[in-house]
Specification:
homohexamer, 116 residues, alpha+beta, two-stranded antiparallel ribbon, 24% helix, elongated
Chain lengths: 116, 116, 116, 116, 116, 116
């Protein structure tokens, strides 16, 4: 649940400071299962995702240093969270990761890229 | 998609300026259908709901005069929208109206009251 | 998945022959559970609902005798299915029954009434 | 919300004139975001999708000239809408487009293809 | 995510030891909001619900002493969780509480009763 | 609705005999539609999926011979059902098949592979 503004005329009323609830899904893919017959420990995945999201929750993104000068669109945030999650995984997973931010029941954005 | 803050210690991190996407549902109830075999013209209901929500969309509620000094919780907003919709209906419907604000797939709040 | 038309000017373009997919939910309520600690046998409820819906599936409602001269709105159909289900229950359940027809993810209609 | 028939014995009872509500999703993909840090202006995408769907809404597809002699299955319609949307985009987007028609909570069909 | 059996012939194949994932919703109702303009602290409600569910998670209910000789139907469990949650609330809430156990996207059971 | 245990320390409390409700989706993909303008007869697909799932429904997987010595994780089961469905299709479909097991509204696993 974040606040932000999108200061570019293309965004019309979303140039105002407004807000959004994002439901964040992370989808991990790999060609074969590991020795425990899983893609990844879902408990670990959940913990790492929470760790990555914690500094953003209940914040005004316009005031966070990591977003200075950036347009924090849903697409941008999907990639930002993807990349933070890759760092947090710290080589414990190889494959592909897709992060989806659901804004509402009719709008969402995803970013998918490799994890090596 | 609104921004707001909840300045009361009970709200913890939500005392910060943050934001939310609300999916707003309006449910109309009446004992018997009208002569067109409907509860209400769904086109009219949709238009009135949009009209009531328009001044809130993409706004920072902390800066709107109608919310000055109010804690704009989901529950408060459900009642506010209910009462605005009753005014907008302008006696064209008698029965009961329930307004639900969905914050996410796990949290929502409703207010239900009569329309006379 | 039915076809029908709504021949009353209040329905605008829905006066045309058009169609709808309805997802039909039946919700049974009673003050106390029966001796099997259930409200109703869900297998029986599912069978009776299918039995009631079978004559309507893949039909043009405008051509069915039971709807001659009726406006087959979602609200009307919710009550029709409710009443047919009460007959089908044949005194095997006492309580309250709510039938909901979901037209899409944003529109639905329900009818609730007693079963005695 | 359309009416249609599927005149081929393989469709069993769906050979009758019946109907369907389709929820139509359009998903746009591109390798990199544009200069506004978005995949596409979601307002424009919504307008173009509405424009493409308008001639089909509340119609009996059996009577529309563009579907003469065609089996208007969900799969066929997904591709039809995809191709109409590519035309409507009029070179304003390059990438991939997936159109999904949701018939109900258990059945859907998609068509995905390039937009150049 | 529990295992259990329903040893009564009315349950057919569910007399076998089998399992279920339940999504548990708690809905609190009161006539007026409290001084913080909320129905209840959602953080507290979530914590109490987790506390009530913890002894059931990943268990075989047939082996838990509190269910000895009981038919642990979805309806029975909805009331059990409701009553445990009323105890856990420990007079911090007055109103009505509805507990819903969702078994799948087509089956659920609720129990609603007062909290005093 | 199955019971099972996951006897490997990595699964923590899920080493206990517990259970799960899985909602199983099958998604068929092919480059071109067949002569009936469909990907596959959805009635046939539904029948084959039911046939494949029937021996698992309301069972304790720990006691079924086909799973002896296996860790029946959601990922493992997604592939098992995929492979059984490929056999059941008996060369009536060529393309790609993705089987998804939804455990709850926040967890799912899929397996996708070719059908030849």
């Amino acid at each position: 649940m974040i606040a932000h503004s999108l200061p570019d005329p293309v965004f019309g009323p979303a140039q105002n400071l407004h807000g959004a609830t994002y439901v964040v899904d992370a989808e991990f893919q790999r060609p074969e299962l590991n020795q425990h017959k899983i893609v990844l420990d879902i408990g670990l995945a959940t913990d790492l995702l929470k760790e990555v999201l914690a500094p953003l929750a209940y914040q005004n993104l316009d005031e966070l240093p990591q977003f200075k000068g950036e347009l924090t669109t849903t697409e941008y945030l999907a990639r930002y969270i993807h990349d933070q999650l890759v760092v947090a995984l710290n080589n414990s997973f190889q494959g592909s990761l897709k992060v989806t931010l659901g804004e509402s029941h009719v709008a969402w954005a995803s970013y998918q890229g490799p994890v090596s």
